[in-house]
Each structure stands twice: as structure tokens, then as C-alpha cells.
Amino acid sequence: MTSFEEAKTEETVTCLHLTFYHPGQEEKMMFRCLNFCKREKVRADDTAKFGRDSSVCRYSLMDTRVSRIQFSLQFYRKLHTLECGFEIKNLSKKTKLTVNQTELGHLNKIDLPWKCIICFGDYQILAEIQEGESVDYFETHLHMAEAPILQERCLPCLPSLQPIPENGISPSLFLPQGKSPTEIDENEL
């Protein structure tokens, strides 16, 4: 047998891709401590914390409006399966965290969907999980978005405020400019 035949089978590694956006990222440089475009190994039993305090957080955001510890991501293996996933927990006492349309208060946690948008303050983070087999560690791969993620990906954090008429036709299409629809009694017709 050759050394190639005797080598251990390579495991694929779960990778969490995180794409960051903030409208003031150019002038405030709040992402300057993040290591972009390079995969980073994280032990499976480590909690990946995000926040302002670089002595506690693995991923530091240089912004005084960010909590000392904003949120954490914990890697885990789902019960009775070989599937792995991430749990996200809001650790900020002052700022709510939104995962897609689910709002998390202080110490609330949920399973991270395989693709979602995490929002707090003016921050938008697109999270995408690339599944793997390894249970010893996972990888993170950080990216920076040039444009707002919510507009770019068409995944709103907030529900649409525009009402949809029952017939699907907007009455504003038929009204002269400046006029608004008025209600009349059916007996007046």
C-alpha cells in the first residue's frame, strides 16, 4: 500500500460565511479588526462572540454603539442526527437582535437558519452555512458588502408597510394626481 492509500479520509468542514455591512463603514472603519477573505478555524467547543470588547470577543467591532458582547454563535450537533448547526444568542442588554424577522431580546436564542440576515442597530450581517462533517471544529469566512445587504439580497428584516388591495390592483393607478380615494355609501350609487 502507498502512503496515499493509508492516509486518513479527509473530512469536510462546516463553514459559516458572514458578510458584514454598515452604512458608515468607510469613514468609521468599525470592521478594521476583522480578518476578511481568510477562513479561520474555530474549535467546536468555543463560542464565537461578537462585540466591542476585544479581550472577550473573537470578532471585534470598533464602534461605541455596539455592546461589549453583542451576540454569540455556538456550534452544536443536532440530537439523533449527524447534522450540525449554530445557535445564535443575543447578549446585549440594550439592543435587540433580529434574525430574519425574529426579534431576540437579551439572552434569547434560536437556531441560525442556513441562510439569514442578522440585524442590530445599523449593522446587517448575511449568514450562510456551508455544511460539513467535522465535529471537532468549524470555520468562519468573513466578507464585506459594498451595498446594503437588505436591498442587495431582497430579504427584508421588516415586513412591507405597503397594503395590498384585495383585487391586486392599486387604486392609485386610476386616480388623478393629488386625489385620494373616498368612501361612499352603497345606497348613494
UniProtKB/TrEMBL annotation:
<dbReference type="GO" id="GO:0043123">
    <property type="term" value="P:positive regulation of canonical NF-kappaB signal transduction"/>
</dbReference>
<dbReference type="Pfam" id="PF00498">
    <property type="entry name" value="FHA"/>
</dbReference>
<dbReference type="GO" id="GO:0005737">
    <property type="term" value="C:cytoplasm"/>
</dbReference>
<keyword id="KW-0399">Innate immunity</keyword>
<protein>
    <recommendedName>
        <fullName>TRAF-interacting protein with FHA domain-containing protein A</fullName>
    </recommendedName>
</protein>
<dbReference type="InterPro" id="IPR008984">
    <property type="entry name" value="SMAD_FHA_dom_sf"/>
</dbReference>
<dbReference type="GO" id="GO:0045087">
    <property type="term" value="P:innate immune response"/>
</dbReference>
<keyword id="KW-0391">Immunity</keyword>
<keyword id="KW-0963">Cytoplasm</keyword>
<dbReference type="InterPro" id="IPR033621">
    <property type="entry name" value="TIFA"/>
</dbReference>
<feature type="region of interest" description="Disordered">
    <location>
        <begin position="169"/>
        <end position="189"/>
    </location>
</feature>
<feature type="domain" description="FHA">
    <location>
        <begin position="49"/>
        <end position="121"/>
    </location>
</feature>
<comment type="similarity">
    <text>Belongs to the TIFA family.</text>
</comment>
<dbReference type="InterPro" id="IPR000253">
    <property type="entry name" value="FHA_dom"/>
</dbReference>
